[in-house]
Specification:
Shape: elongated
Strand order of the largest sheet: 2-1-3-4
Number of strands: 4
Structural class: mainly alpha
Order of helices and strands: HHEHEHEHEHHHHHHHHH
Length: 375
């Protein structure tokens, strides 16, 4: 490494740590991993629930007790009028309402089908779907207990009844812990965002203060300037990535089943692509505000096409094909494979090749654009 590049790298580190806004942005992006880990859950607990019990019988009270004994439903309102349900759902005070009709216990005692009405706030379809699934499970168990009582059986000898058992095995994640996938997804997103934002910010900052024009008249070559911009930011991003991994592993018990050395090595491919994209954005931006706007304008489609929010298989065919252009898609496959599956290059080589090809293409295009700007 020649003295010019060393001097430029030193300058980049000094300028980076002087820019408090950029430093705080990096810290925030990786601390956001912890925030999202605590806030984003697929499970739904403590749903505010209203109950309208028209039967007021031991059977109806037993059903209500079944709901209140779970962590999914929080019986907050015992109402006396059907119109109150509309008001509670409209105001968002209740997410679920359970209506038990007058003939509930009579139908049970006489061996007829007893009905229960469940009203769920469908404005949040995910919450409503899970609430309905939880409620159906509770009602099925309640109905099963009634059948056992009618047949004179207890839970201990219920195995005498003919049943069909599902033998379900979940590979890699036996507990189906969504937090683990959520955390590795957030680490991947944070790595992509910081790579683009820091590279764009480093170049645009030079343009704003006028030092880029001064560098153009020096003997410094364009590739030397690009290297000097990328290497310090790469070190900063690696440090931030290490912090993100520590948060995921020690705060949220994310397992590391593969090689950490392989993970950090392959992460350089993502940084290569991200920083190339950041440099390209900087060359077409006049100031920091414009660069940040363009960054988020480009980054959000990349994130949505990566499979972090919605499974790629659920997307329309056109978007599925476009997702192959997202470097984050291939990096997410890599990080999930290493952390949650424990696989290595023998399995991940297609993603590695794709990520490297995308990164090389972006970097070449950004270098050409930057050289034209320098010229």
């Amino acid at each position: 490494m020649n003295s010019r590049i060393k001097a430029l790298i030193k300058k980049e580190f000094i300028q980076f740590f002087r820019d408090r806004a950029l430093v705080m942005l990096v810290i925030y992006i990786f601390l956001e991993i912890a925030i999202c880990g605590f806030a984003l859950f697929m499970d739904v607990n403590n749903l505010p629930t209203a109950v309208y019990d028209l039967d007021k019988s031991p059977q109806s009270r037993a059903l209500i007790e079944k709901f209140s004994s779970t962590e999914n439903f929080n019986i907050k309102y015992l109402i006396q009028n059907y119109n109150e349900i509309d008001d509670l759902l409209d105001r968002g005070k209740a997410s679920v309402a359970i209506v038990i009709p007058k003939d509930f216990s009579v139908n049970i005692l006489e061996g007829r089908t007893a009905k229960v009405q469940l009203l769920a706030d469908g404005s949040n379809s995910n919450t409503a779907t899970l609430a309905i699934a939880y409620a159906n499970k509770i009602i099925r168990m309640f109905s099963r207990n009634i059948e056992l009582e009618r047949m004179g059986l207890t839970e201990n000898n219920a195995a005498l009844l003919p049943t069909v058992n599902n033998l379900i095995t979940s590979w890699y994640e036996p507990g189906l812990n969504f937090t683990h996938f959520n955390m590795v997804s957030m680490v991947a997103i944070a790595a992509m965002f910081t790579g683009v934002l820091l590279a764009a910010g480093a170049v645009v900052r030079e343009k704003e203060v006028g030092t880029l024009e001064q560098l153009m008249v020096t003997p410094i070559k364009s590739y030397e300037l690009i290297l000097a911009k990328i290497l310090p930011m790469g070190i900063v991003k690696m440090a931030g990535l290490a912090v993100g991994v520590l948060i995921a592993v020690f705060l949220f018990d994310v397992p590391i089943r593969g090689s950490l050395i392989l993970f950090f090595s392959l992460s350089t491919l993502l940084f290569f692509a991200a920083m190339g994209l950041g440099v390209f954005i900087a060359t077409i931006s006049k100031n920091m505000q414009q660069a940040l706007l363009l960054c988020f304008f480009i980054l959000f489609p990349i994130m949505f096409l990566s499979g972090t929010m919605v499974p790629i298989s659920s997307m329309p065919k056109v978007l599925q094909w476009l997702s192959y252009l997202s470097p984050l898609r291939h990096y997410l496959d890599i990080i999930v494979g290493i952390f949650l599956k424990g696989v290595g290059l023998r399995i991940l080589w297609p993603q590695v090749v794709a990520l490297g090809a995308i990164g090389l293409t972006i970097f070449i295009l950004s270098s050409i654009k930057f050289q034209k700007r320098m010229g």
